[in-house]
Amino acid sequence: MRVIRYSEHGGPEVLTVDKVPVPEPGEGQLRVRVEAVGVNFIETQLRSGTAPFPSPVPSAPRGDVVGRVEAAGPGAHRFAVGDRLAAWGVADAYADHVLVTDGQAVAVPDDVSAPVATALASTAQVAANVLSVGRLAPGESVLVHAAAGAIGHLVTQLAKLRGAGTVIGTVGSPEKAAFVRDHGADVVVDYTAPDWAEQVRAATGGAGVDVVLDSVEGPVFAPSLALLKPLGRLVYYGFAGADGDVARVALTDLLGLKSIVGTAFDAWLAAAPEEAERHQRELTELVRDGRLRVAVHAVLPLEEAAQAHRLIEDRRQLGRVVLVP
Ligand SMILES: NC(=O)c1ccc[n+]([C@@H]2O[C@H](COP(=O)([O-])OP(=O)(O)OC[C@H]3O[C@@H](n4cnc5c(N)ncnc54)[C@H](OP(=O)(O)O)[C@@H]3O)[C@@H](O)[C@H]2O)c1
What we know:
CATH class of the largest domain: Alpha Beta
Radius of gyration: 20 Å
CATH superfamily of the largest domain: Medium-chain alcohol dehydrogenases, catalytic domain
Oligomer: single chain
Bound molecules: NADP nicotinamide-adenine-dinucleotide phosphate
Helix content: 25-40%
CATH architecture of the largest domain: Alpha-Beta Complex
Structural class: alpha/beta
């Protein structure tokens, strides 16, 4: 079978198509025949060696996999051969077959297409998670950074579904604005403009926002914190714009009744398993009945993994980029 790996850090060209034996599931593992793999931004940072934590090589991208169970190892009881599932954080994910553990996977109904269902593995969950962690209350204003992204366009829609007041989405280029508006943002601001923070403040009548959802950090972090109203919450969940450096916070900047909370999906699953399970049921239904739209920007063959990474690195995606075997 084919699997995409890399032996050194570098540009998308370091991704190679390797031929390996089909893996056998071990204790607690399932082997899944892959229908589609969601390509996540973090994998471009890990591949290039620019993530702000160690990313040893050789390595292989992880991803959100949708497929059917074709073999179950001893002790894997939650799914049976033939079941359709979505699994997050799958190792050696850009492949024809993958191994997943019971705990990584959720059931996926047959009436959701595989590219769309990749969002049910983790992307939609992360979107719901950041809103919960930010304690968004009905009527509150929210600033969603990178709102055209795979997670961003889902957060924007979910914020509205949860009764948010003004939803402001940021984008890195003007051609993304219509897409973000179409997915529920009331206001779209291009944060490459020097006065972007003033534009956000103006959109709130000068008051600032109740909640900031920040997956970009870097140059947008400090102005975002400054935009929080008293009792406002900034949720930090990614560092797409950090360029290797992690932002520092002066505690005095929090004295205006501001809070910062960080979240990672695995930490959320461990800390709030029941809420995560409830989210999963809700998100699956929202996707099925079309109230939550998963935009699939591109579906590329497995061998074009480098092209998928290029597309994401060039910040061209509107929604989700998917590979299919
Ligand atoms: N905490 C968690 O559990 C968790 C889980 C999954 C993902 N994440 C994080 O959530 C974020 C969104 O993930 P995603 O897969 O949905 O990615 P994505 O939003 O589809 O892609 C990242 C976006 O970040 C924006 N960006 C801003 N500055 C950038 C820069 N210097 N270089 C590249 N992109 C830049 C770009 O949008 P514009 O061009 O519009 O600026 C880009 O499209 C990522 O930071 C990811 O690491 C966190």
